[in-house]
Each structure stands twice: as C-alpha cells, then as structure tokens.
C-alpha cells in the first residue's frame, strides 16, 4: 500500500512537470531557432536514515535534455535575418551581462544603431554589434557586418565588425531558463571561423506541433491514471481499516 502511494504521488507530480515542458515547447513552435526540451524520469528507492532501502519507491526527474536537431530554414529576404547553416551558435549578451548562445537570427536595429536580438545585445569579435543609426546593413556568410550610411555612395560601405559565431560541443551546453545556452563552466567560447551564415533567412523551431499535441494528450492520461491509483490506494486503506475494526 505504502509503495503504491509513493509511486502514484511522485508519478503524478512528474507527469505535471512533463506537461509543462511539452506546453513550453508548443508555445515556442514559432520561435526562430528554438530547441525542443526533452524530459526523462527514473525510478528511485526511498532510503532510510541508515542508508537501507525498503519497498517504497518514487519517480525522480533525470537531467533534462535538449533536441539539437536543426529546424527548417525559412527565407525571409530581410537584411537583418540570419540563419546558421549546419553547426554553430550566435553569441549574445544576456540580461546579466554574460555571454550566451542562440540559434535565433531575427535581428533588430535600435534607433541608436545597436543590433539586438529580443532586446539582447548581439556580440561581435570586438564587443556589442553597432552601426551608424539609419544605415543600410548587410551581413556576410562569415558574419561580417557592412553598413552604408544614408545618402552615401555605394563605394563608401564600411565594415563594422564580425558577428561572433561559435561551435562548442553540444554536450557541454546547458539551457538556461531564458532559453539561451551556455557552457557548463560558464567560460566564453572562442569564435569559430568555420561557422557559416545564410543572410535573409531564419531557422525555424524544431518543435513538431503534431507530436507535441499527441504527447500532451498522453501525458494528461498518465496524470489521470496516477490520480486514480491514489484514489485506489485510499479506498484500499479504508477497506483495510474496516476489516481491522471487525476483527
């Protein structure tokens, strides 16, 4: 009885967490460069104070993983949209001022010429990316940023820097709550000259909405099953108490 309660209780809790992960994936089905998060669970015995294990077990969360499968490349024709072809990441400065990495490439230019991604500064080989306000910007396959001021002749195009593109091993990357990835040791990664950009395109999310909806239904049914097990355990407990009272 005790074992049933523990398994059902923790199973229901983890089913809810799995639903949250699936819901977050579905909410980002249209987010450029988004990588789906994977959930995993394992059975763990309950240990007593002396280290011994009894019959009680519960469901524990394993280290969550990430599906690094590339998303489809969507052509937009927009000068500030970039997609990474093959392996690689784009460096940005997160809200805490640390370097982080993303596959999103729908860049924006602020009124003062800063190039940003969802409000975060995009990094170059020499710091935050910036161009003269109002300039026409083009980005090369190697991340080179070229700018042409308003009214300037084409011959006056100036190189304003090179986007920092990195390619760390995926197994060393840790996803943050903000959706950005960082090395496990939090040390900045050196730029990789072999990373190639495609201008005028963005990489779509790798979330499959059909699979996500199917998983959501399956997880909902799993939660209901765990709750029924709890109800069954409670009913069995009441029946056992009645039998003891009759004895």
UniProtKB/TrEMBL annotation:
Organism: Pandoraea faecigallinarum
Region Disordered, annotated ranges: 47-66
Subunit and interaction comment: The basal body constitutes a major portion of the flagellar organelle and consists of five rings (E,L,P,S, and M) mounted on a central rod. The rod consists of about 26 subunits of FlgG in the distal portion, and FlgB, FlgC and FlgF are thought to build up the proximal portion of the rod with about 6 subunits each.
InterPro entries: Flag_bb_rod_N (IPR001444), Flagellar_basal_body_rod_CS (IPR019776), Flagellar_FlgE/F/G (IPR020013), Flg_bb/hook_C_dom (IPR010930), FlgE/F/G-like (IPR037925), LlgE_F_G-like_D1 (IPR053967)
Localization per record: Bacterial flagellum basal body
The protein, known as: Flagellar basal-body rod protein FlgF
GO-annotated biological processes: bacterial-type flagellum-dependent swarming motility
Transmembrane segments annotated in the record for this chain: none
Classification of source organism: Bacteria, Pseudomonadati, Pseudomonadota, Betaproteobacteria, Burkholderiales
Polar residues composition bias: residue spans: 52-66
Domain Flagellar basal body rod protein N-terminal: 5-35
Source taxon at top rank: Bacteria
Domain Flagellar basal-body/hook protein C-terminal: from-to ranges: 199-243
Family designation: Belongs to the flagella basal body rod proteins family.
GO cellular component: bacterial-type flagellum basal body, rod
